[in-house]
Every structure is written in C-alpha cells, then in structure tokens.
Amino acid sequence: MKNDIALIDEKSIRNKIYIIRGKEVMIDSDLAEIYGYATRDFNKQVKNNMNKFDSDFMFQLTEEEFKNLMFKKSTSSWGEEENFLTFLPSKVYIC
After folding, report:
1. CA distance 66 to 43
2. pLDDT at res. 48
3. pLDDT one-digit tens code per residue, 20-79
4. How far is CA 79 from CA 45, 70, 71, 73, 87, in A?
5. Cα(29)–Cα(43) distance, integer angstroms
6. Orientation angle between helical segments 28-35 and 39-48, nearest 10 degrees
7. What are the φ/ψ torsions at residue 85 (nearest 5 degrees)?
8. DSSP β-ladder status, 23-27 and 58-60
9. Alpha helices in the chain, H assignment, sequence order
10. pLDDT above 50 for 2
11. How many CB atoms within 10 Å of residue 91?
12. Distance between alpha carbon 70 and the CA centroid of its chain, in Å?
C-alpha cells in the first residue's frame, strides 16, 4: 500500500481564506482539495457528521456572493479563470 503525503504551506492555505459576511471562510472545494477528497465526497462527510459541528459552521452562498467570490478567485495570482470553473463552490465553511 502506498502512502502519499501532501504538504501544504501556510501561504497556500491563507490564499484560500475569504471574508464573506464578515467571517473568514473557506469554500468546500478548497477544503476538499486540502483533505484529498472530491468536493461531493467532502460535503457528504460533513452532512453525515453534522452533529460534530456548531450550527454556524457553514452556510450556502447567495448568487451575488458566489459571483463576487468567482471574480476574486479568477483574478488571484494562483488561479486561472478556466480552472476555477471546475471548482464551483456551493458551501463555505467558517474558519
């Protein structure tokens, strides 16, 4: 069995934190990537374990918030707009 270890530096994580509704948040697709899951599987794990999280642990983005985030992400130095389209966020998680 092969064990893969991915090292993620602090700058990479900080680049994935956004301010939405006055809170520091990370989107589901970024968290899934960090933990090595598909976004769908990551959200399923959270849903199956909701009793382990505070009630304000996550929220759904509005269409306007999503468009705003998409603009920020597509203009950042580490992402390209065409790649972002494969990581459409549906939920954000409070840091």
Report:
1. 17
2. 92
3. 888 888 888 888 888 888 989 998 998 899 899 887 888 888 888 888 888 877 655 444
4. 26, 10, 11, 6, 11
5. 9
6. 90
7. -60, -20
8. unpaired
9. 10-14, 28-35, 39-48, 63-74, 81-84
10. yes
11. 20
12. 12
Q: Residue 63 is encoded by which pair of tokens? A: 């269409």
Closest CA to 87 of 37, 48, 46, 50: 37
Place of tokens 């983005």: 61
Residue 89: which of 20, 23, 10, 8 has the closest Cα? 20
Token pair 């090292």 is found at: 7
CA angle 87, 38, 42 (to 5 degrees): 105
Which tokens in the block code for residue 41?
């599987």
C-alpha 73/C-alpha 62 separation (Å) is 16
**What's this model's pTM, rounded to 2 decimal places?**
0.66
Rounded Cα distance between 69 and 73, Å, is 6
